[in-house]
């Protein structure tokens, strides 16, 4: 053929398909895997032996098989892995149609959003902590009774840091030691 262009297409397709940084899964109309790129194999810890398996056996999706079969597009966040190696992926599924608009399969793209989600979660945590610090400051300024103020602060600090208990002691210069002043929950009556 002319410059052997068509001889390059299968090679270029495989090279491109396997060099994409997103995971790609191709499904048939029965939601069975017919192709998978190397990135998706690595992320899902599967190989080409999984060809023919149902997507629901490979991924824990929040959609029913019947709904997935009739959906032209579908998106959700999925989590894969354990606590030490947990990743969050954006799962985007699109229906493949021929020139007659008949569905012949689906393509799913997995995009790793773990870093972005961790940053969002950390920012939300910081925001909650700032709100709690503002509430503690407001409490400290609005309560005249020193012991009540300390107790209110301890209760809020417990919420803020997610601790089971918080203890507050003040240094007594005369005794040269810390003196218990307030505690939360179980030890409240002892302080």
Describe the 3D structure.
It is a single chain. This protein has helices at residues 5-19, 38-44, 55-58, 65-70, 114-142, 146-161, and strands at 23-27, 33-36, 73-80, 87-97, 103-112, 167-172, 177-183. The chain is an alpha+beta fold and 191 residues long. The strands form two sheets. It has a five-stranded antiparallel beta sheet with strand order 2-1-5-4-3. It has a two-stranded antiparallel ribbon with strand order 6-7. Strand 4 (87-97) and strand 5 form a beta hairpin. The radius of gyration is 28 Å and the shape is elongated. The relative contact order is 0.09. The mean pLDDT is 85.
Please give a quick description of this structure.
The protein is of the alpha+beta class. The protein has 6 helices and 7 strands.
DSSP summary, beta strand count: 7
Residue fraction in strands: 25-35%
C-alpha Rg, in Å? 28 Å
Spell the H/E element sequence.
HEEHHHEEEHHEE
Morphology call: elongated
- Amino-to-carboxy terminus distance: 90 Å
């Amino acid at each position: 053929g002319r410059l052997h262009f068509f001889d390059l297409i299968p090679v270029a397709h495989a090279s491109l398909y396997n060099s994409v940084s997103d995971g790609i899964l191709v499904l048939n109309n029965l939601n069975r895997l017919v192709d998978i790129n190397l990135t998706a194999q690595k992320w899902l810890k599967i190989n080409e032996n999984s060809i023919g398996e149902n997507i629901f056996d490979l991924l824990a999706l929040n959609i029913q098989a019947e709904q997935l079969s009739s959906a032209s597009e579908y998106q959700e966040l999925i989590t894969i892995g354990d606590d030490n190696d947990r990743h969050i992926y954006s799962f985007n599924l699109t229906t493949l149609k021929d020139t007659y608009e008949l569905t012949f399969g689906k393509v799913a793209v997995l995009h790793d959003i773990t870093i972005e989600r961790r940053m969002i979660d950390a920012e939300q945590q910081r925001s909650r902590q700032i709100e709690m610090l503002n509430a503690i400051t407001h409490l400290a300024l609005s309560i005249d009774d020193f012991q009540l103020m300390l107790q209110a602060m301890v209760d809020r600090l417990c919420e803020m840091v997610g601790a089971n208990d918080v203890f507050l002691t003040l240094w007594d210069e005369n005794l040269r030691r810390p003196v218990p002043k307030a505690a939360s929950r179980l030890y409240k009556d002892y302080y």
